[in-house]
Amino acid sequence: DFEPFTDKFRAVIEPLARIKSRQKQGKVEKTPVEGTSDTSTGQTTLTGQINALYIVLNEAKFLKASIDAVIKRPEVGKVVVVEGADRRYPSANKMGLSTDKTAEKMRYLTKKYGEKIVWERYGWADKGKEELRQRAIDLAQAQPGQWMLFVDGDEVWEDINWQVLMENLQKFSKNDSFSPGVVYFKHHHFWHDKEKVAVGGQWNSNLFRLFRMTDEKPHINFHGGEPCDVNGISWGKKYGMHTLSDVFVHHYGYCKDEKDVQDKIIPGQNGSLECQRSQHTGVVHLRNIPASIR
What we know:
By secondary structure, this protein is an alpha/beta fold. The chain contains eight helices and ten strands. The strands form two sheets. An eight-stranded mixed beta sheet has the order 3-2-1-4-8-6-9-5, sandwiched between helices. Helix 3 (about 100-115) links the parallel strand 2 (about 75-85) and strand 3 (about 115-125). Helix 2 (about 65-70) runs parallel beside helix 3 (about 100-115). The two termini are about 20 Å apart.
């Protein structure tokens, strides 16, 4: 399914190829999962146990597709959306809120899904995006043992990746000796063209997106990082960390207009978009772009 690519890209592409192979063999369903069952009791153990957390600003282009793809999952009990801006970002209004149709999209979604969505127009975050992430965690009011999943407004979870994630979370719940505090994924960035994946440079790292609640209050000390306890010890160091190489987050944000991309990835820095783009050493074509995004 892929055009030729160099060895440098294999770590990014081969796990996705394994998922596609599993699908062809009938091991991964194309339809949404209806929860993950405990075979010993026949009960669904993950229903309502995941809280999806969004930090959004000017995400109108992909936000509906992103939330629709998450909220339909029976494992998702709540979707929390905090709209606001770090003061380094120029593309916000005077209240620190979106200037596009993000609010219009959210009004539609809250009407459609009711109490399953918590939406707060927070505005300016003087301490940065970590302040917004902390607010989303607090609004979720999750219980110990529940999972907190960060989702960007320009990311879309496909059925295949969601099912593989649920299979792994179910394994964790059955394994008393190891149920990690944080989980890392691989990520795919679609650069300007929905049929291309930007790889190399900054895209090769693993991506923190999921953590498990405990009796302790999690603290977000920097944007994109794991939560920490009150003493600054990271969740992964304290409760264990695991990387899922067969789960990919599909990130469509870089299909946005060039100005939007520039505002997002280089706020407050000297340089140009071309400097950022030069880090990308190539692209790999994909065939399976979700219909909702086309």
